[in-house]
Amino acid sequence: MHDPYFPPLPALQRLVTPLCNALHLYTLPLHIHEILSVFVIYHVIFEYVAPPLSGYFLTKQYTGLSRESKLRWNMHCVSMVQSVTICVLALWVTAVDEERRTMNHEERMWGYTGAAGMVQALATGYFLFDLAVMVRYLDVFGVGMLTHASSCLVTYTLGFRPVFNYYGCVFMLYELSTPFLNFHWFFDKLNMTGSKAQLYNGIALITVFFSCRLVWGAYSSFNIYRDTWNALYFDPYTTKLSTNTDMMRFGSDHALPAWLLIIYMGGHITLQLLNVFWLGKMIAAIRKRFTPEAKAAKANGVTSNGAISKKKQLNGRATSNGVAKKLS
Predict the structure, then answer these.
(1) Which stretches does the entry tag as region Disordered (predicted)?
(2) Which of 38, 47, 279, 310 has the fewest CB atoms inside 10 Å of its own CB, making it the most exposed?
(3) How far is 289 from 309, CA to CA, in rounded Å?
(4) Are 172 and 272 in contact (CB under 8 A)?
């Protein structure tokens, strides 16, 4: 299936082709415009759309946030747009790309379709934007988030060799749980901690996270391990070869260097372990918001981070030394 996105500018494609060929990223020139355009779109949302819209529609809540919380709020807005968009496109390509659906193990490893490449490019553009924000605001997001952005960007960029082009849509479905995670964070900042909306969203978050990251993720990881094993012991004389020359025009050399396997396989194992860890942390965090202590704290005007709500502060009595509590 061809890439449904608009084609790259010929001048831009010619400009990046020599470097891409030198790095063995042969399909990257076909999608460089998608990466750059998505990078610009998400930057515009982060800098020029999320702040004024949030300040207009949620004046008290947004303007009362600290600098760090505002940056995180803006980032969650971008994450919401990205996760919904990429999941819809990944599901759509999975459903309608007939070439991708009928791939054999050789084509799943080294084959290429334009539609799957588009999904990969849009994800790469987001991770490029994510990395830029993590570097710019390292003091806010920390080294851990910087490492995550870097590793994701490297992994998806290497897919333009092409290798594992088939699996780009597969693992993008991890993002199905991200909108629920964003809503959970927004509820805290909107003083809705412990509300029924947060409870229902929390149940959906845990259910979708477990289903798409642990169950679907483990199944997909097994498939990619199996295809990799078959590729390592690939025998062109006994294995059915691909007859789709257009799909295999970039991966006919069947290159699979050891360092590439280490990055991909090691990354999948690490991510699966992290998913189990994150699920436990999410369950604990959601339970904490619905304990009797949390409900009592909310009734007394204490938010999830221990701060006194502005309303309670304004209505509260003076402290023992006669000085009113300072607004957070």
Answers:
(1) 308-328
(2) 47
(3) 16
(4) no
Give the pLDDT confidence of 45-55 residue by residue, as tens digits: 999 999 999 99
How far is Cα 43 from Cα 28, in angstroms, rounded to an integer? 21
| Structural contact between residues 270 and 169, judged by C-beta atoms closer than 8 angstroms | no
Between CA 91 and CA 87 the distance in angstroms is: 6
CA distance linking residue 176 with residue 205, whole number of Å:
9
- Residue 316's pLDDT is 41
CA atoms of 241 and 252, how far apart (whole Å): 11
Structure tokens at 126: 């987001």
Residues 6+ apart with CB under 8 A from 152: 123, 127, 130
Structure confidence by residue, pLDDT tens digits, 198-234: 999 999 999 999 999 999 999 999 999 999 888 888 6
Q: Which residue has the tokens 């529609």?
A: 57
Report CA-CA distances (Å) from 280 to 76, 194, 277.
Answer: 21, 19, 5
Mean pLDDT of 134-155: 92
Ordered alpha helix ranges (H), the chain: 10-22, 32-44, 50-57, 59-63, 67-96, 98-101, 105-110, 114-136, 138-158, 167-172, 178-189, 196-209, 216-232, 258-288, 292-299, 310-315
Backbone φ and ψ for 257, nearest 5 degrees, come out as -65, 155
**Residues with Cβ < 8 Å from 103, sequence gap 6 or more?**
111, 166, 247
Mean pLDDT for the stretch of residues 181-185:
95
Cβ atoms of residues 79 and 184 within 8 Å? no
Tokens representing 255? 């290159």
